[in-house]
Amino acid sequence: MRMKLKKTFSDLLVSPGRTLLVVFALVLGIWGVGTVFVSYFVLANDLNANYQSTNPSQVVFHSNQFEKLNLQQFTEKPEVETAELRDFSLQRIEISPNDWIPLWLYGVEDFEKFKLARIFPETEKRAPDAGTILIERDCKHITKIDVGDSPRVRIDGNMLNVKVSGICFDPAQAPATQDAFIYAYTDKSSYKKMTGLPNNQRLIVRLNNVHSDEDVKKVSDILVKELNTNGITISSVEIPKFNQHPHQWQLDTLIFLVGSIGMLAFIMGAVLVSQLMRSVMASQVRQIGILKAIGGSQYQVFQIYIAMLLLMGFSAGIIAIPLSVASGYAFSYFVAWKLNFNILTTSLPVFVYVMLFAASLLLPVLLSFGIVLKGTSISVRQALADYGISQKVSLREFKFSKRISDSSSFILAIRNSLRNSRRLAVTIMAMALGVAIFSTGFNVRQSLWNLLSNLKSELRYDVQVVLGDQVSREAALRPFSSLQNVKKIEMWNGGRGQIQSNLLSTNKGAGIVVLPYNSELLKLKIINGSWLSSSGELEIVMNQQACDLYNHPAVGSYVILMIGEKNIKGKLVGIAEQFEKPKIYMDIEKYDSLFNPDHLINSLMFVAGDHTYEKVVELKREIEKSIAPTDFKVLYVMSQAERVKIIYDHLNIILTTIVLLSFLVLVVSAIGMASATGINILERTREIGVMRAIGAAPKVIYSLFVMEGMVVSISSILLGLLLAYPLSQLAAIFFGNLMLGKEAILQYAFSPSGFLITLLITLLFGWLASRIPAKSAVQIPTHKALSYE
Amino acid sequence: MTIETNELILSLQDVTKEFLSQERKFTALKNINLFVQKGEYLAITGKSGSGKSTLLNMITGIDHPTSGSIKVRDVTIGQLNESKLAKWRGKNIGIVFQFFQLIPTLTIRENILLAMEFVDVIPNPDRLKRVQDLLTQVGIADQADKMPASLSGGEQQRAAIARALANNPEIIVADEPTGNLDSKTADSINSIFSSLARSGKTVIVVTHERNTALKYHRIVNLVDGEIEVQNSQN
User: In angstroms, what is the C-alpha Rg of chain B?
Assistant: First the structure.
């Protein structure tokens, strides 16, 4: 074996612990980056591939005059790739006794031949038998309904038992689990029989030569005009996001999340590798001098240390690449499960492995190139005269340490910490980053806790029943007269927007909520202006999302709202903060006097006598039971307790993961700090000998190094907590969007318990990180320390 | 002891070395003029701080003079860049240090082979035999496969001399080679240097003692960076 390589190997084995630490740091970095790379490669392709496999529609036209349409002629238009008439209506299905959720029911022309918005069979049946439905597979996560079952379906006021004849997969839909929907498909004739609704009111179209939302808009405008010319009036046009799965944004943010964690692991790994390489180079200064003195050129010496890095990179790659592939796929499968699509990329192309391996070899070289270059460029004279780190402390540092304390050992600890200010800065920054991320994890958790408790305190009703039609107050209350555990029922008019109801929503899609101005059941946080009052004019309060929708009108100004054919002019008196879809609130009396002379309502807000979770869920079931025999057209029945619990359950898993991941980052930074302390001690071995020789007891030296570690820890904590503030604000926005949807508002919150935990853990880590190398430092015999080269 | 040839191998002309520190300018060497012949066994003596090691660093190219020139045969050391200088040094000058400075992670044989590998003047097939010959020459042939730490101080210094001879340089420079050894071991190391000089190598030894018992061709005494006396022992 060539001697240079032999030296490389032997040097790696001189300090196996340190070598393992470097490899560990590299594994972390490569694993992080590799996981991102693999999952990005799989996910970036697969969600879109799943979505595109359905041949999704690009525009949907609504009309009750499509019987005049010659579909064949329409599909032959140059702008049209293909088109179909696909029925759709929103119904309700019972997923367990007296537990109902919305059912999105589609009527399909031909299950064998459809070319557009395709679904894929997951069971034997490609098409449902007459009078039966296929249900989308994602519903299996929220219900036990299976093939052969006949769950109850409520269509308007009628109750039907509809048999499930098969399971299908529709990757173009938003995941049922996230919105608690079930998608079902039946043939047109069965659709008509089940719903009593006319067929062919909805035309789905895929266009030729369109490349953006704007293109689709332009072409659909042309088509609407042509259809109008042919006597077909289009009542509304829906344009989904161009060639994009409805939850693509969620996937993007998830990839961003993994990317951030990967990058974080990479940065921490990088810091660790460079710290450790600095340590290696520090211990090799003399040897570098010797190598050069006996004829080694800088390039030859450089080769030895680059070979060392390549060897460590190779070892790290062997460990990290399979881990990256496994975790990249695990994450991809997790996302696919959450977003309901199939992983299609089952094997990775060779170039992915080549890239990962190249990264394993190149990363350590790139991360430490400067350090090795600098280390090997030292002159023979400097190298042979090397006694470790700087012997000098600047006057400024001297004064600084003097100002802080008069304790001589504390002053010494501070001055020693300042001797290599660049290393100190890197160590403090790395540790501070760990502290900041750890603290941010707790703060985001606190923000979500606050959001949940706000939700509880804002919405003080326990169960909400929303009807599709307005009914009289007496009729609305009648079915619930014998209910137990009901303290109060308040009646409102309200909708959640276009999806749930066109009944009480503006033409822009904001839901209108009409309630007594002095209702005790809704206490929103007003961020500008005030809540509704008993003044003479029609007042409105908008939530932030509605405010966005109406281009931020000023509080005090008048806003024209178009509801169906009617125009309402209301004075905007306040803006409310709310985690909800766009909503506009107004007083029920004023609304009724202007537009609702019969005082009809469509929402019943139940307040339970006993608010415990089980009792509220029971009340909801009783309400469903009471509704069952009525002819009410129910849009939804929702209990706040369940809603909050579902949100909490979902968030808790993610929040625990965030805290765990940030803990990992903290551990890595603590290792970095331990290695930096280790380097300091190594470089000062001779100094330790001198201190021992002039009478310093091992205990004094030990406490000196521990104190140095604590100086670094405390500085890191202070900086980390400062950094945590902006980081937590950014993270609150990011995780709010990621977990709760685009409308979410997540306010920065400070977690006192998180602060305390961060403080204790960081101090503990700082103590451990300095204690271990300090302990080994005092074990070196004085004579050895004095003769240390 | 006489010098066999009359061939100039090393010349220092008006060499001055100044060090600048924050407080002051310190002149370590002042207008040194020194001429060394091939095969000469030269001692540089002086008290601590007299400039001995600085002078040695000038000769080996480890450091450069502030003014003046140093020539080894026709090569002016100051004109070589760091990389060429390292290779030139490995080929032409063998250095022996007070603390031996063997690479602790390589065996004695590997330490010598590494020096050969760096300079690459000894053909690859001849290297192992040459290592063995050199170790025999310095009297530690049986220690070839041992790690430096398992050898005594004297044995380590012999190994360091063998390494200095690895590429068959014309000049051997030793910086207090016996300063870390007992007197008996020091005598045996000094006898190796003597025999090297007899065999035609130019040997320059830095020492803080003037041991007149040693058969140097010449003793150069440095006082405060200046050559005070050049004693010829011929």
Answer: 17
